[in-house]
Specification:
The protein has three helices and 17 strands. The N and C termini lie far apart (94 Å). The chain folds into three domains: 40 residues; 123 residues, Jelly Rolls (Sandwich); 72 residues, Phage tail protein beta-alpha-beta fold, CATH 3.55.50.
Length: 270
């Protein structure tokens, strides 16, 4: 039998609905607190279990490259105008590519090797690979072995030799298989173009020059350039470019300007 409060006492006690709402609110607060505690605990444990004992920042200037060897024998090559941070941890090696491009020749140890670049995570499975930081993502290519590539959305992809993937806005896109010698050509001091649109080739050239390379006519950006050229003599490539494509190259104090000739810019040249 349900008891009821006498009328004089009822105002002194909260209504059942108020008690239920209060209990529900307390349960919600406890759940949030528990989740926060778990998050803090897991973060703290991760730091305790895999602490960083050495952090290095490496930078290369425009037109320069550099090579460094980690204590475990892994080799990292930085391309022109690049910057990365290396964290040596107890159970992992974590690299953050802040800008530019780097190549990795990973020594196999008990520690994992992870590279992060612009919302893209590359985990080494035993390989030689390159990562290039781009405006809206990253470009990953493999010379030997395999890597696992993850982005913000979608399943991860596993790449093997001569395969590459581009991440853009958090999504992964498999690219056509690379030609032999194309991946990692810059490590050999070469610029490698394989029917590459001139607009993309110009951006690659500019990375090794102090002056910007400007296309005076957007239409010539569709012209295609092929061949292997020396990185240390990009100026020589610009000198001979008019013999390869229907363009002219003029230098001013502020820029290197590539313009169309009387030939039809829409024609494809190789």
């Amino acid at each position: 039998m349900r008891a009821s409060l006498a009328p004089p006492l009822r105002p002194r006690f909260p209504a059942p609905e108020t008690i239920i709402r209060g209990a529900a609110k307390r349960r919600t607060v406890r759940k949030i607190a528990a989740m926060a505690a778990v998050l803090l605990l897991s973060t703290g444990l991760a730091w305790l279990i895999d602490p960083a004992y050495d952090t290095r920042q490496v930078v290369t200037g425009a037109g320069r490259t550099s090579t460094l060897t980690m204590a475990d024998g892994s080799r990292i090559q930085l391309n022109t105008d690049s910057e990365l941070r290396i964290e040596s941890r107890l159970f992992s090696r974590r690299i953050t590519l802040l800008r530019g491009e780097a190549g990795f020749d990973v020594a196999h140890t008990y520690r994992s090797f992870v590279v992060e670049a612009h919302r893209t995570t590359v985990t080494d499975i035993g390989t030689v690979f390159d990562v290039r930081n781009q405006e809206d993502g990253a470009l990953v290519s493999v010379q030997q072995g395999a890597v696992e590539v993850r982005s913000d959305s979608g399943p991860p992809l596993v790449l093997t030799a001569d395969q590459s993937v581009r991440s853009s806005d958090g999504k992964l896109e498999r690219l056509a298989d690379l030609e032999p010698g194309q991946s990692g050509a810059w490590r050999r001091g070469k610029l490698y173009f394989n029917a590459t649109p001139l607009r993309e080739a110009a951006l690659d050239m500019q990375r090794y020059l102090a002056q910007p390379v400007v296309l005076a006519d957007a239409r010539i950006g569709d012209l295609r350039l092929s061949g292997e050229y020396n990185i240390k003599d990009v100026n020589d490539l610009l000198r001979v470019l008019p013999t390869i494509l229907p363009v002219t190259v003029k230098r001013s104090p502020g820029a290197i300007v590539i313009s169309a000739t009387s030939a039809t810019p829409g024609n494809t040249a190789k």
